[in-house]
Amino acid sequence: MIEQLIANEEEMYDFGAYLYSILPDTGVVYLNGQLGAGKTTLVRAVLQAAGYLHHVKSPTYTIVEDYVLGNRRYLHFDLYRLTDPEELEWLGFRDYLAESLLFIEWAEQGIGFLPDPDLVINLSIENSMYRRVTLSGFP
User: Fold this and answer.
1) In what helix (H) or strand (E) does residue 89 lie, and over which residues does it extend?
2) Sequence-distant (≥ 6) Cβ neighbours of residue 29 within 8 angstroms
3) Which residues contact 71 (CB under 8 A, 6 or more apart)?
4) Average pLDDT of the chain to the nearest whole number
5) How far apart are alpha carbons 74 and 43 in whole angstroms?
6) Quick check: helix, strand or coil at residue 90?
7) Which residues are bridge partners to 5 per DSSP?
8) Alpha-carbon dihedral angle through residues 85, 65, 59, 8, given to the nearest 10 degrees
9) Which of 11, 16, 39, 59 could form a cystine bridge with 31, CB 3.0-4.6 A?
10) Half-sphere exposure of 84 (CA within 13 A, CB side)
C-alpha cells in the first residue's frame, strides 16, 4: 500500500506522473472519493504524464472518455449518473476491457457488472486543504 498527502494541484500532477510510471498498459483502476476529492484531476495528471496535451474533462455526462496515446489506450469512466449497473452492458463495457487501462470513478454504481480492480485509489479531503491518496493493489 502507498499513501501520500497532496497539498496542491502541482503535487497532484507530480503524483500522477509517478502513477503513470508504474501503471501497466492494461488493467482496471477504481477511483474512490467524495465529490471534489480530486479523482478527475488525478486522471488528468496521469494523461498529461503520458503526453496528452489537450483538455481532459470529467466524463460525468458522457460516462466514458477515450484517450489513445501511442500504443496505449486509456478509458476514463464516471458511473455517478448510472441508475442501473446493467447500463454498462448496454454501453458495451466488455468491449473496452481488452487492451485498455480503465479508470473508473464511482465503481459502486456498477457492482455486478464491473471486473475486480487491479488497483484501488482512495482519495479523501483532509482539513479542506489536503488530499490523502492511498493506493492498494498493483504495483
Assistant:
1) helix 87-90
2) 23, 101, 102, 103, 104, 117, 118, 119, 120, 121
3) 25
4) 90
5) 10
6) helix
7) 132
8) 120
9) 39
10) 5
Residues 74-130 pLDDT 10s: 999 999 988 888 888 888 788 878 789 999 999 999 988 899 999 999 999 998 789
Look at residue 139 in the predicted model and tell me its pLDDT. Answer: 55
**C-alpha cell of 52?**
496528452
Give me the pLDDT at residue 138, please.
64
pLDDT at 59 over 60: yes
Contact in structure between 42 and 48 (CB atoms under 8 Å): no
Q: What residue ranges in 1-139 does DSSP mark as E strands?
A: 2-6, 27-32, 64-69, 72-78, 101-105, 119-126, 130-137
Grouping H, G, I as helix, E, B as strand and the rest as coil, residue 5 is strand
